[in-house]
Amino acid sequence: MKKGSYWQRRQDSVTPEAVFRQRRQIVQALGLSAIGASVPLGVQAGLLDWLGKAPETAPRAPLHYQGSQRYGIEDALTPEDKVISHNNFYEFGTGKTDPLHYAQEFKTEPWQLVVDGEVDKPGSYSIAELINQYPLEERIYRMRCVEAWSMVIPWLGFPLSQLLEKAQPNSKARYVAFETLYDPEQMRGQRSGRVGGGINFPYVEGLRMDEAMHPLTILSLGLYGKTLPPQNGAPVRLVVPWKYGFKGIKSIVRIHLTEQQPPTTWNQLAPHEYGFYANVNPAVHHPRWSQASERRIGEGGLLSAKRIATEPFNGYGEFVADLYQGQDLRRDY
Ligand SMILES: Nc1nc2c(c(=O)[nH]1)N[C@H]1C(S)=C(S)[C@@H](COP(=O)(O)O)O[C@H]1N2
Ligand SMILES: [Mo]
Description:
Blueprint: H1 16-30, H2 41-51, E1 68-69, H3 80-83, H4 98-102, E2 112-117, E3 123-126, H5 127-133, E4 137-144, E5 149-159, H6 160-167, E6 175-180, E7 204-208, H7 209-212, E8 218-223, E9 226-227, E10 237-239, E11 252-258, H8 265-269, E12 293-300, E13 305-309, H9 317-320
Parallel strand pairs: 1-4, 2-11, 5-12
Antiparallel strand pairs: 2-3, 4-5, 5-8, 6-7, 6-11, 8-9, 8-10, 12-13
């Protein structure tokens, strides 16, 4: 990790809320409320992005945090209404707005996060215990979904390394496995293969030990100054900004240190399409689409969403490329 190469900034001068209000006024003035049927499909996504829609979401508590870091990324924040209404959370359905619609009753209290496996000091922690033990900071990170859309999100969290150090990994600990809650009664996507996209739940993810200990890897408990909404993975989720979004497992109940590389959900479902590493890489394409560029959610004009070039390691190469020295990242995709 290079020191002093990031810069700090609290927030964009124009708040997302102000932008949102403005757009609503323009839309009303133009009488555009009935947009849809007559607009070609390719144009609709960008148009809907631009118009926005006020998301109704479960109440969120403000969180205390210290400092805000961007790690070299100067992009404008994605407006909060986009961050909390365009989601991937297959436990609540495969559609981008399914999590917003179906996760609002999700119970995130009480909640216990178990840390066990190859450690000397296993434990189980409530969310309050985590917040009291580890000071939260704001991390403004790009998030690049493997589906070629992206956002810039102000997360609140703390380095995963702090929690792992407390557990005291033993000499066998080479990987870290993560597991989402399994609760079909609450999660409609876990009740049938169709709604949940054929995933074998619970959703599981994994990192190599050095990736898990990297200072950019955080456990997040909030975004935009408040606790996470359920659709973004409340009460605690992983954020690994140089990897595709699917590595950022949501609503975690267990962190398990292992000797062997753990199975991961998308790799199990389609091994030729999704690897264990899943580092953002514009030179290695998904078999069914290019990874050279991405659609930045919430940006672009009325008739076209903004497409930007995808960067190696999602723009975080100066901090993380060293982790993969000597590795062929075309094979280890
Ligand atoms: N448990 C679980 N975690 C998950 C997913 C999921 O379906 N289930 N989707 C992943 C994918 S594909 C992405 S892109 C991100 C999306 O995070 P966001 O909805 O907060 O933007 O969450 C990841 N974490
Ligand atoms: Mo994703």
